[in-house]
Amino acid sequence: MTQQSVNIEQCKKILTRYWGFTTFKPLQEDIIRSVIEGRDTLALMPTGGGKSITFQVPALAKEGTCLVITPLIALMKEQVNRLNSLEIKSLMIHSAMSREEIDITIENCIYGDYKFLYVSPERISTQLFQGKVGRINLSLIAIDEAHCISQWGYDFRPSYLKIATLREKISPDVPFLALTATATQNVIEDIMDKLAFRTRNVLKTSFERKNISYLVRQVEEKGSYLVKTLNRVGGSGIVYVRSRKRCKEVAEMLSGQGIVADFYHAGLPDELRDKKQASWTTGKTRVIVATNAFGMGIDKADVRFVIHWDVPDSIENYFQESGRAGRDNKPAYAVLLYSPSDKTRLNDSLRQKFPPIDRIKDTYEALCNFLMVPLGAGKDNVFDFNMAEFVSRYRLPVIETFNSLAFLQREGYVEFTEEINNPSRVHFIVGRDDLYKFQVANEPFDGFIKLMLRSYTGMFTEFVVINEESLSKKAAITRETVYQYLVKLSSMNIIRYIPGKKTSLVIFTEERLERKALMISPDNYLHVREKYSARLEKMIEYGESKNRCRSVMLLDYFGEESDRCGTCDVCRERNELDLSKYEFDIILEEIKAILSEKNPDPEEMVAMLSYPEEKVIKVIRWLLDHNKIIQDSDHRLSWK
Q1: Which CATH number fits domain 347-422+504-533: 3.20.20.140, 1.10.10.10, 3.30.360.10, 3.40.50.1970?
Q2: Could you report the per-residue pLDDT of 329-368, keeping only the tens digit for each?
Q3: Who contacts 433 (Cβ-Cβ below 8 Å, separation ≥6)?
Q4: pTM to 2 decimals?
Q5: Residue 628: C-alpha distances to residues 283, 568, 588, 596, 624 (Å)
Q6: If you classify domain 8-204 with CATH, what class do you get?
Q7: What are the residues whose beta carbons fall under 8 Å from the beta carbon of 326, sequence distance 6 or more?
Q8: At 526, which helix (H) or strand (E)?
């Protein structure tokens, strides 16, 4: 299909109309220009950089539908609801939907004027989607969390590898826009390869966040430190922890000390999570103690601190989570609380993260039996999955089982989702004329049908989310009566009714295999384990280092060079020497050059340098304190 010509001025008008801004951020405009020129684009945007605008604006400027691929169902629902509230017609497809719902959704995109179709990656390769996607007039394909396509990345998902097959089904003019917040150089190259980019095209800004002071506090009593810190500093912020249990414990400890705090994790009901997030966003709650489930869709610029009680398992995760501080570009703090026990825990997590291969195969067989999937069957089937019941029935250790499922997902055998709250949906399968005849002939249902049609729109063309509780209040009847009405209308083929449920899901991306055919390569297993171990080591190095600028360490991890920040804990200690950055660095370099050839004692070293004695002594003392240089029994210095 011929692509419509669009210019940046049209895009600016759309930005103003729907988002109220008059100009784009610098990188946003570069990305949008690249997209409207029809170029495949990989965009690296920091957390809070406004990723969604880079595909939503050009998609609105162009004819056709933008396909958005994202693994985050909660974020998908949030964005689709937001777009529809702006009267921008949008739909979504994810694994918690029935085949009939998915079919209707795709047909609506083919024949209706929908601007956005959000799809979870595991749905891309299904026969239903592959068979129909070519009939949708696509303007753009946006791939969120694009690092998931790379085996070098920290969150690899095999379903992402299927995305490139879309190129065979759609017009060659449709550009791909891949988006991620963090990626090393290996991951950047891998993303473009795996998405079959027509030309290399990477757009990014520096990862540097000059307004954030990165601090590491090596403390055993984290609770005491946290309370003292929060009583000393102002503003609101986030405290990240690793477990749901600790999440509640820390929040209650802070509340007991007079700090207005609350907790947030994925196990809470959606309504309660929304309420807690809103309370924090509006400033009623000062501190939110959360697992990493807290982060998607956060729209709060004035976060003054992000404190990690527990150490994340990768620099990528730490950088993304700490980057939620200071989006208003005012001074903010990212604090990591580190103790020797954290190193032990991280090293233990390596063992737990990678159960023995035989244990992974045991989990696979137990899963297939639990879900009653016969050999050779199950491909693309979606199953409700109760993890607690599963581990109880087969007497399996919870953490090891969870990680076995994660490895089976990484190998491409299954997809496993966290708990999804899927609300009730209704779709009228008769036309308006036939419905009218039914109402005339079945008077007891007439009032209830009229109530539904008054309460919701679009039920003749698609499945619409309903709330039984709300209908019961409006009709002054019990919720059970509403449920019975819906079930009866469904049995009479007037509507399709899908009751709401909250459950985890397992999707079989391949048919069930015999144990001996389940290929988990020992080499691949060790390779993945080594990469995970290397990421842990980098995180431990960050927590234990006392002599290297925190910002420099983080930026170096992502392949970016920078000068020391001057505001992290390491730089502040240097600053206390009463030396300028230039003076400290030049004296350090000269000491390093001398020690590469000889081993003077401190007095000889002072004499060899043409700087004031007190300044040289300060640098030598700092280097000794931070184990950069060592002194032997004769007081001779050498570079460690």
Answers
A1: 1.10.10.10
A2: 899 999 999 998 899 988 888 888 899 999 999 999 999 9
A3: none
A4: 0.82
A5: 45, 19, 10, 13, 6
A6: alpha beta
A7: 209, 211, 212, 303, 304, 332
A8: helix 522-544
